[in-house]
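Re: weekly structure request thread

Next one in the queue (1420 aa):
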Amino acid sequence: MWTYYTKRIGPPKKKNRENIEVTNFPPIYNDSTSKPIKQDHRDKRQTVPTTERLQQLFFSNSLADHGPIERKIKVQKKTVGRKASQGKVNEETALAIKRHLKGLRHLAPETQTSLLVDNDVLSQLRHQTFNIKDQALNALLDLGGVHGSVAQVEQAAKFLQSLVALREEDGVGALAEAAREEALGGRGEKMLASSWAAEGSTDSQTSLTEEATATRKVPAAASALNEGFQQRGPKIRTRRDSTKTQDVTHGLPKQRRFMVYICGGYRDTVPERQALRENVYPRLYLYCKQRGYDFKMVDLRLGISDPVTEHHDTVELHLETLRNCQKTATANFFIFAGQKHEVPTLPVQISRRAFESILAVVERDRKKRSRRRSQAYDELAFSSQSTMTHSDAGNSFARQPSPDHQAAEGDHRPLAPQGSTTMISNEATVSRTSLTDGEEEGGGGGLTRGWADFDRDLTLLQAWYKLDENHVPPVYRLLPVSTHHPDFLSRDAQRRRRGRKAWRTSCGQLWAVLRRSAPEALGDEEASRLLRTVLDCEVDQGLSALSPPEEFCHCYKRIIPDLLYNLRSEHANTYIDLLKGQTEVNQTHNMAHQRLINNIHRKLRHTNIYERNVGWGKKGLSPKHNRSHLFYTDRLCSHFQRTVTSSLNRAMELSRAKEPFDVRRRAASREQQREEMMRHIRHAHALEKQHVFRQAVLEDIRAAVESGPRKPILLLGEAGWGKSTTLAKAALLMPQWIPGDVRVQLCFVELTAESRNVRLVLRSMCVQLAQTYSSHTHISEPLALLASELHTLLGLASAERPAVIALDALDELSEEHEGDVSWLCSPLPPHVYVLLSATTNSTAARDLQKQAEMRVIHLPPLTPEEVTRGLELRLEADSRQLRPQQRQLLRQACLACPSPLFLEAAYVETRRWSSFSAQESLVLPGDLAKLYETLLSRLEREHGENLVRRAGELLSLSRAGITEDELLVLLARDSGVRREVDAFSSRRHMSASSSHSEDSLPRVPSVLWARLRRALGPHLMEVESDGTWVHRWSHTELGRVAVQRYLRSEDSRKIVHADFADYYRGSFGGRHRDVFQPLAWVLDEGERSGGSSSGVKRYAFNLRKLHGLPYHLVHSGQIMPLMNECLFNYDFLLYKAWGLSVLHIEDDLRGAVIPEKELLDVDVLSQVLLMSRDVLQRDPCQLASQLTGRLAQIVTQDRPVAPGDPCKFSHLHTLLAQCQRSSLPSLVPSFTCLLPPGGLMYSHVAGHMSPVTAIAACQDGSQVLTCSQEGTLRLWDLNKGRVVHTLTLGDEDDDGSSSTLPAADTLTLCLEDTLVAVTRAHHLEVRELDSGDLLYSESESLDVPVVTCAADGQLLVVFFDGSQMVKVFDLTDSCKLLCCTSVTLESEPIHKDHSVLLSRHSVKDYQQQQQQQQQQVSSE
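Done, posted below.
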């Protein structure tokens, strides 16, 4: 171990100047970023000199990153020969440094700087390759060391000549030789020769092409050892053409979610990963939730012991999950490495060329072994060139003696098979993994293999790999496990375990065959890619996808130093690979694991690799039984939490709250609305890309649009007939069909929970229209007001800026407002286009067609041409093809049910078909429901009946989706799922053979759900809803089938809803219940900045609980818990009114109404909330004040008549008592100071975009006329609460254009509500209410007119304040002036309310007087 002391701190050293060995290091840079070095993304250090890399590795003072300021200083300040900080390296690296520096001592300083050797050439050096070449060089140069016989020297010379010839083939041999001669002198040649030989064994190897493999006649070992050197020399290095790793962090989408992917050994890293899950995950989850972000920690290995699956999709599943986690711009990839290698996984598919090459090698060896004559052995012995074999005793390579020599010496060991040199090379270059629990790979090891062994290998390959010509190009595909081991999917636990054991044996045999034959057939590099483990793939993907990897990746490496002294322990096999039945380390697997560690060191900077040493215990590594192990896991958890938290802080966009509460609340509401709009827009674009049908329907929609905008367009079709896709395509084409600057508003009902609520859909559309046409408008909250405001905003559309509204799946609106669509039935204003869709026989479709005139367009079934074209496009996109019988079966099924949804679902099923699938096993029902039944049956057989059943129930009955955490907890609530997991998974085997208790493992491993989710494919989708991400069915039809299959009775559905309610209530949340299911996550601003509490708090509301708890309590029939825990729980009401709206509480109250039972408490609370709605919408924190100020007297007077009698209100007492203990500071009155419920109620109407300035009531009182500030008159129907007529006050100019007049001061309805008299300042005008035509206008008066009507509205009386002149107009005679006179009154006629008393007589007196005057005139 090396230790370097800084600042002259350390033990005293004896100075002996005569024996000091001085090593002059070349100049190095203070940081890796100070001097940019052009690197290959696959080997980032292959161009850096070894001396510099070693110093950067050990002597660098950047072992810890101290922040961006110090990094900037390091970049600007370059030092030469600087002192290094105190640090330690592992034993292997120390030996490498010693060996390398020992050779550099004999070189001149200028020669040291010219050497360009790989950075980790010594640590990566395979001892077989080094010993072969080192012995050969020693024999040739006579530089000392181990010397062999003359034959050995001759063989070494030939071997080196083949290496040189191979280098000269690539055009680098001459240059490398010249550089070697120039740089070396004397004994330094030995060092350079060894380095030159070692450089050929790096990982930068290229696979040999078929032509090169066939033409090159060099030994297989020489070919394998020197492939890496073909690309580089000491001075000139040629790089492979490849795409550089891109810095994709700038392209990452802005998500309010962070995901961390954890990988490690299936069994040896369980204590670390389990500790993180139990201790760190809740803290990080709370940390993110308090700041408005979602957090997820993914560990697909926790709870299982091996990656065995039916379809061998473990690698694809892990990589897909890892790529999903890498979409978040934070530290997202963590590796936990021990001393045990990963369990093996076979390649799922192999290219046709590669597999047939492997078969050819096995067949060739089988034919050679079939010749049993002794002459063949003699010829083989004499023709071989001094074969090298590995000596276990001396850890070196020795010449294998001939058979005669063996017999003479009494050595009866079997001859090594032909091609043993290739096998030696393969052990150094091909990545292999151990089987489970130390099982051997099979295949005979190093024993002599006969023709029967190769015949068995050939049969094994042909039995498990079949040519799939449905793939383009054809590939050999690994068959499902149950093909040859049907017990693997058995429902009997014992048979299922036998099937798993049989598959592990077959897997080991297949692995051994590929390991022996693939390198010779394909080359080392291609063979290593073929035989990679799951962890190898994860490391390659995790460390190369994002750049730089140090920003996103970290590695924890645990070492048990005394493990080798405890190999006899029953738990040793869990932490290191042992030979089967022995207490010896499996060196093959140990070397493969070391290559993985070296690969991590090569790709990831040492500052991100954290090495920890921990001692061995009686039960291995068990924090439960060993305090030092508990201390180790606690330290690891603390460091992990600090690392992730630091990365999260850099990615979060948080600012200290400085604005008032109401400002922050409105800003948060606007941000939520914007995000909701963007979700629908992105969904529309995703659907538009899938549109390949319905071209004729698009032409019909275009014709209807071009004919005029007065009638809404309604698309009708059966479920799954492509209504959503067609509507999305048509909506995006509207700007091309309609002239002007078209504004399109999109909403796909049921995409999110918010889009299923009628009121929220209306509000979203009103907000979008207000942003387009009237940004200063305030949008209301109640449904009736929103309906009026929507039509008002639509009236602002013009020819220059027409409006388009597209609403999909109106029949899927939720039951909060009974799916009300009456707001769509009013006549459309000009320049407004409405596009709707619904299922043919749905209630919404019938109501729309009854209440309004619609242009109905029916979606026809798909034509045979469209079916054929759709299938061809999908096959071409997936690079697949089908056999003629398979294609015919698929086409017939699609023609039997000609809908796009069935075509998509049927095609997804055919992805499992291969060209060798038996025709009788291929079934495609001609009905969508039956196809879904077939899908669920297959999933039950592969993933477990209870698991699929329970997941289908939860997905179908959830409120607009379910999160993964909710799903895993609720799955474990089902006893059938628990029994199935314990009996059929590998969990029991793992808990029985390890030191970890079964109780510490998750009841349902997350990988089981991940596999089921991947098997569902496009039938399941993940969307953002309620501030988190939920899983839901892609189409409601599958949900209906699942309900009919699993939840046929009402009681079974209530049980599932009750489980949901119990989860939100925290009934089984454990010790972290307050972390995962509070009403809100509260963050103190002072604590966030690291100081003391400042009193300013940030609230992030748990919308899943605020929405879901009342919903599931209502649907489970638990009305009394709903009353106690939600409706009359002050904290719940406060947080729901604050986080959502008081109208959501009103929706909950409507859901609690029981027709056969009257709940007085609910009625009173509904009235109180209605009266306080305006106040609570502005400031929900006044809830306690409003409830106490209106209910205090009612509750005080509510006393039982006699002792023992119940009170009239059973829940209001508890609610007001909770108000007195409000969690927020509130002004709570001590008595009733506000209007109590039970009096005169009122309701709101909305529709004006500006304040109302005048109002007039009609004679019957059913209608009201209002005028707004912008000069718009609206006639309201008070019974319906909506506008029935709109009129704009304006004058026509000389050029024909109209101008809007100022707002009216007063309105007067006359002549049976057909005329309206409008006054504004000194202006008077009379208009017809229907047409708006001007009948009379006067603006010359200097006095303000005061208007009223008489004679049942037939006379208009105008009094001019100031001159006291009165004018009377006959409205029945075109507003004829009857008289104009000045009146003198004894008292002031003008009252405070601007009214005037003109006469105390009735209209009959006036009529009689008129008749008398007419008679007098006629008589004269």
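The longest helix spans residues 493-522. The radius of gyration is 42 Å.
Next request, please.
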